[in-house]
Amino acid sequence: VRACKMKVIYDISVLGLSQYSGDPRTKTGVSRVIEALACSLKMISDCDLVFSTIHQHNEQAIDVLAASLAYLTSHVELDEIPLLHSPVQREIEEKLKDIRALLSVQSQIHSHSDSGMDSYQAFFEQFYASSLHHNAQHSSLWVQNERLQEFDIFHSTYFSIPESINKHIACFLMVYDLIPVLYPQFFGLEKENSVVYHALKAIAPKRDYITCISHSTKNDVCNFIDIDPDRVFVTPLAASPEKFYVCSDKAVINQTLEKYAIRNEPYFLSVCTLEPRKNISHLIQSFGELIRQEKLDNVNLVLVGAKGWSYQKIFEELARQPLLQNRIFLTGRVEDSDLAAIYSGALAFVYPSLYEGFGLPPLEAMQCGVPVITSNSSSLPEVVGDAGIMVDADSVNDLCQSMLKVYADGALRDEMHKKSIAQARQFSWSSCAEATWNAYNQALG
């Protein structure tokens, strides 16, 4: 039993990057997980939580640090958590930034009268970038390394664990999936260029620990690097009960459908980024087969999500399905406050993804009481359990038959509604935080 609180450094670099971009679309699933877990960890009475933004070793370092402070100021549930950084380094870099801005103004003023200003500006740009890089390299935690002795745990929520930290305290890396490593073709890049590849290659297997969001991801990690499985912990995710719930108000559902120009008719739903890994082309093809075979004229398909990498193939499949031109609705990104109504109004949620590290959308759908049809690969069986229908991700016939079964059988939909809610109750952010906390305790013996 610990005599005092455990002091935990929790990295929020991704949240700072999201705030820095100023684009709400950058608030990805990873950002939501980092934010939700932080909120739950702070509720553990023996957890003395501090935040850090230690991984930005480039010219944006001070901007991301400032954005992280702004993020905390605008999020009441986390604004009392201190952000760990060196005031001295921040002051130096703020002054460097001010000088850069001043030189930029001077360059504009003297652009026609002083030809030497451009070369001076170029020199300073190089000096500015190298100074930030030097400071970041030699003070990567934004604090002096000797202060690390004050802490028990460092938890990187995305980026590599710096060597300067794991020599001092127990370090954790959170891993969401190894999809960029196992299936780089889904991202259009070499696996060696992915963040997770470098983060796992930087692991010190005798010193560091890993948290994974599913048993499937843990298996992938243990197959990829040589690490004792006892040092890899599973901390399943959850869906926010404030955002995802059973919406029984038909008027609200109808208003929401109208808001996104979705025809008020029965519909199947999928929520995901429009990219090859989500297998949306396959879903469109299967839906088309269902319409043709069964001659259905009163059911639609709603696709919620922003365009991702190589989304063009999805629209090419749509172009090959002329019968579906008025039957498929693409909404783009939907406001969080509207998701519960769109989920709740669906006949079923269909998610034939080829690979997932966890699969939050099916869990969100189940929490809204929606029947779920997913592929039977990777982590999805862990999330869906026996509440949904699982199919071969490559089988058009399997997906068609499953969709037809749910469409035609009201009693089955009612049964799956109850099972979905029961299955979703097995996941919560407090449970995720508790599993993470238990991992910390095991690391400290």
Poorly predicted ranges (pLDDT <50, ≥5 residues)?
136-141
- How much strand? 5-15%
Please state the structural category.
Answer: alpha/beta
Largest sheet: 7 strands, parallel
**Order of strands, widest sheet:** 3-2-1-4-5-6-7
Q: Number of DSSP helices?
A: 18
> Can you count the beta strands?
13
Indicate the overall shape.
Answer: globular
How far apart are the termini?
Answer: 10 Å
Mean pLDDT reading: 88
Q: Radius of gyration in whole Å, from Cα?
A: 25 Å
**What is the share of helical residues?**
40-55%
What does this protein look like?
- The chain is α/β, with parallel strands linked by helices and 445 residues long.
- Helix 4 (87-109) runs antiparallel to helix 5 (116-138), helix 11 runs parallel beside helix 12 (312-319) and helix 14 packs across helix 17 (410-424).
- The strands form 2 sheets. A 7-stranded parallel beta sheet has the order 3-2-1-4-5-6-7, sandwiched between helices. Strands 10-9-8-11-12-13 form a 6-stranded parallel beta sheet, sandwiched between helices.
- Helix 6 (163-166) links the parallel strand 4 (153-156) and strand 5.
- It is globular and about 70 Å long.
- The protein has 18 helices and 13 strands.
- Helices cover 46% and strands 13% of the residues.
- The protein has helices spanning 13-21, 29-41, 61-74, 87-109, 116-138, 163-166, 179-182, 195-201, 215-224, 250-259, 280-294, 312-319, 336-344, 360-367, 380-384, 396-408, 410-424, 429-443; strands spanning 6-11, 47-52, 83-84, 153-156, 170-175, 209-212, 232-234, 267-271, 300-304, 328-332, 348-351, 372-375, 389-391.
